[in-house]
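Thread title: Can someone regenerate the structure for this chain?

I was given the following input by a collaborator and told the matching structure tokens would be attached. They weren't. Posting the sequence so someone can regenerate them.
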Amino acid sequence: MYGTINCDGEQWGECDGQVPQAEMCDDMDNNCNGQIDEGWQLGEPCGSGECAGGVIVCSPDAITTVCSTDGNGSQEICGDNIDNDCDGTVDEGCAVDADGDGYPSDIDCDDTDAILNLDDVDMDGYSTCDGDCDDFDPVLNPGDYDGDGVTSCGGDCDDTDGSKYPGKLWYPDCDGDGAGSGLAIAACDPSSYFCANGAGPDGGWSEVAGTDCDDENPLRFPGNPELCDGRDNDCDGVIPASEIDADGDGFAACSGDCDDANPTVRPGADEICGDGIDNDCDLIVDEDCYEPMCGDGAIDPGEECDDGNTISGDGCSAECRMEDADGDGWSVAEGDCDDSEASVHPGAPEICNDGFNNNCDGYPDEVCPEEPESERE
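Best answer:
Regenerated them for you:
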């Protein structure tokens, strides 16, 4: 708005025009730009519910705006789906049962889902609003009765036993030697698990990891004395050298092999004569070994006789062969049944009444006629 400057005596006075300032909502051009109340969106539609149909106007304080229909509202009427008090919200403060589960929204934990409500059908003390995963089964609920941190709704297999819960580690003692395995199974209840033999562990289950190096062999566990079986019985990670069959003959030093670098040496092996080795590990070298010797009085293999000397002419030659002592062409070895009588040998004619079995057939005088009785006297 334009002003004027008046002369005051000998000098000009001040301008009496309006000084520009921030535009206010007061039906005036406060910033002197030729527009009134610009920027306040006056006349724009406003209002909702019973206050619908208004326009934006300046408020009495000149620094805000209001809807021209403000004040037309009334108290909210529940259930009419109208914004009675013109605050932009329908039926606020009214309790409704949107999901039809019998519980209004002011107390229902989820009024859009009828399954979630305050009923405790199975009487276990928990409703679906409390987190009951099955309100028809009193065993299943969000309570942790055994204090193991897992509820029956969370998968606890026995909510009355704090030692049983999902993911619990169990260590078997399959061979029953008292030293459990270090390998565990994670299970609520291990009773349905079996060892490699298809049966439950002989030594049961433990909650503490074991140190058994072979839980399928009761002769192998920490502290067990070493046995002569080629295994690490005491679980120290070492098989004693005395249990190893180095030469592959079926015997180790601990089982009696007196030279485990020689496969011909072991308990029960045949003695090899002349090798100077105790092949059968009986602490005797080459026992029962001897060279046949004629003249030692013992008939060895290959000898026909052995009269204790090596002199020929006595019926057994110096080479231990039978001699023809009576010169009839037959030796004892050849069937002469009396090598001191030349008339006695196989095939000789029977001489009657000479007292010899001349033909060596075992029947003396078998071809001789019987003597008359008178001659016998």
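The CA atoms of residues 9 and 356 lie 208 Å apart.
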